[in-house]
Amino acid sequence: xxxxxxxxxxxxxxxxxxxxxxxxxxxxxxxxxxxxxxxxxxxxxxxxxxxxxxxxxxxxxxxxxxxxxxxxxxxxxxxxxxxxxxxxxxxxxxxxxxxxxxxxxxxxxxxxxxxxxxxxxxxxxxxxxxxxxxxxxxxxxxxxxxxxxxxxxxxxxxxxxxxxxxxxxxxxxxxxxxxxxxxxxxxxxxxxxxxxxxxxxxxxxxxxxxxxxxxxxxxxxxxxxxxxxxxxxxxxxxxxxxxxxxxxxxxxxxxxxxxxxxxxxxxxxxxxxxxxxxxxxxxxxxxxxxxxxxxxxxxxxxxxxxxxxxxxxxxxxxxxxxxxxxxxxxxxxxxxxxxxxxxxxxxxxxxxxxxxxxxxxxxxxxxxxxxxxxxxxxxxxxxxxxxxxxxxxxxxxxxxxxxxxxxxxxxx
Length: 412
Prior knowledge:
Blueprint: H1 2-21, H2 27-45, E1 57-58, E2 63-64, E3 66-70, E4 74-78, E5 92-95, H3 97-102, H4 104-116, H5 118-121, E6 137-140, H6 144-154, E7 155-172, H7 184-188, E8 189-206, E9 212-216, E10 219-223, H8 247-264, E11 269-271, E12 279-281, H9 282-295, H10 312-316, E13 329-330, E14 337-338, H11 344-347, H12 350-357
Parallel strand pairs: 7-8
Antiparallel strand pairs: 1-2, 3-4, 5-6, 9-10, 11-12, 13-14
């Protein structure tokens, strides 16, 4: 995942450089440099036919995997359905035509690279020549086909898609230690893998019954699906990335999906959850993930909050029931809070989800009802009437009843 994080870093630095270039044109050169770094990182992540490099993308399985190398001649992918395979989605930036045209130096160097290095610019990433909605350009590690395959996994409730967000490891590993059969988007949105009732798991539920292991120099190392606290002191001690739900990484996934929608619009529809027959655009998928994150903290029909883990005092006592704890991470299957109980620094991000989609969020574990499309988030001008209801203001009016004008998602 370190490679994907560096691609994410390059795009953020590129974005900041263009912002600074509004005041000093020298930053156009820096933006161009980070653009080139991003291109080379994207190229390095995917195996090129005839080279001896080890790819991080598995074309057969439709997912990104970590790779391990030891000695001079030993290397292989590690086919573990974890959040590692979703992190490449973070590296996504949409360039408005007005931004590109404002910086002629950056535009010239970007277009030179696309025209003169087409074997790199079109091979392992989104097509930068193609214009999306509103003539926008997309910089992303994943092209449209790969994006769909990744989301199939992420939105699969048998993998990453929990009722309470995105699991850190696919539920698939609960029963399938070796084989990988579902494509990337199928995996992410599969409720038997990443798609929990409470968000996206950090590892697929699949690994619960199907742990993965490798023998290195006569010693076995394994990975299993653990939706709660880690059961092993290996790999950095209490490593809670084997299934729990983390607000920070779910937030980054939501933001990435919103950026992809900004480019693809209604053209790209995926099944969510996988196998449900319910197809939606990526703005609605982002909403669905946010709803599941909110379900961690919201009361269900019985008046209980998943984060409280069934604690009677926290759920029923009038002196405690309205005080919500912001735990460090959450159980991938039942949403109960784990780790530090006052991790407001990133778990407080649920407030942002509530601001964006709270008006249309249903109660936890209740039938789905029509949801807002959140299209106001992407249009050039935010609608003054929320699609969630009849209130004469947008979902952002929790802060201000005035519209925000011509602002991009990044500006918000």
